Automatic annotation (TrEMBL):
InterPro entries: Acyl_CoA_acyltransferase (IPR016181), GNAT_dom (IPR000182), MshD_Acetyltransferase (IPR050276)
Keywords: Transferase
Entries under SUPFAM superfamilies matching the protein: Acyl-CoA N-acyltransferases (Nat)
Top-level lineage group: Bacteria
GO MF assignments: acyltransferase activity, transferring groups other than amino-acyl groups
Name this protein carries in UniProt: Predicted N-acetyltransferase YhbS
Organism from which the protein derives: Chryseobacterium ureilyticum
Residue ranges of every copy of the N-acetyltransferase domain listed in the record: 2-157
Length: 177
């Protein structure tokens, strides 16, 4: 039995460890994701309600997901969206649907908070299961080169990305622009 709930300060150490562990064997990783989570918690882009943990019945933290504020910039216009990054499931808990639960619950909360879309860079086979499609379908691009299929977005409400063309601007803590 897995419960998804908002992360609390007492979880920080377990989240740090599981994030490091989840990305340890990942090829396309700088292996700094656990430090990124720490930086983002102190950032203006942080939304406490959208830092979620998956907890098992014994109180072990099996996974974590973080959505932070992100901008889509088009000349002098700027639109608010969310970045999904990172999502981590402890290796021994992977492939049991926990990543999916974290993503879906995150979408639900984000929608209730009034956010209209989410943008991410990730595996093109995983995120479409949850409704993500290529950002290029929405006229949204990244300020650096990535394979087109790895930049993805979801509308949390109908037309949530209509007339929201532009270039993604990640929070500075990501260090990617
Ligand atoms: C990606 C991750 C969060 C998925 O969580 P999970 O709880 O294992 O995933 P789920 O149980 O919801 O989904 C499992 C499905 O996703 C697939 N999947 C899992 N990780 C994947 C990945 N990195 N790339 C492509 N597919 C992946 C599995 O093969 C499985 O497919 P199936 O349903 O067709 O059998 C988890 O595997 C993880 O922490 N990986 C390491 C860190 C990472 O890659 N994070 C995402 C990048 S930001």
């Amino acid at each position: 039995m897995i419960t998804i709930r908002q992360e609390e300060e007492k979880d920080y150490q377990q989240v740090f460890q599981l994030t490091e562990e989840a990305f340890r064997e990942m090829e396309h990783s700088d292996h700094q994701e656990h430090f990124l989570v720490e930086k983002l918690r102190d950032s203006e882009a942080f939304i406490p309600e959208l830092s979620l943990v998956a907890e098992d019945e014994n109180g072990n933290i099996a996974g974590h997901i973080l959505f932070t504020k992100l901008k889509i910039v088009n000349g002098s216009e700027s639109f608010e969206s969310l970045a999904l990054a990172p999502v981590s499931v402890k290796p021994e808990f992977q492939n049991q649907g926990i990543g999916g639960q974290l993503i879906r619950e995150g979408h639900d909360i984000a929608g209730k908070l009034g956010y209209q879309s989410v943008i991410l860079i990730g595996h093109e086979k995983y995120y479409p299961k949850f409704g993500y499609e290529k950002t290029s379908n929405f006229g949204i691009s990244f300020p650096f080169d990535i394979p087109e299929e790895n930049g993805m977005a979801i509308e949390l409400v109908p037309d949530g990305l209509k007339n929201r063309k532009g270039i993604v601007k990640y929070p500075k803590e990501f260090g990617i622009d």
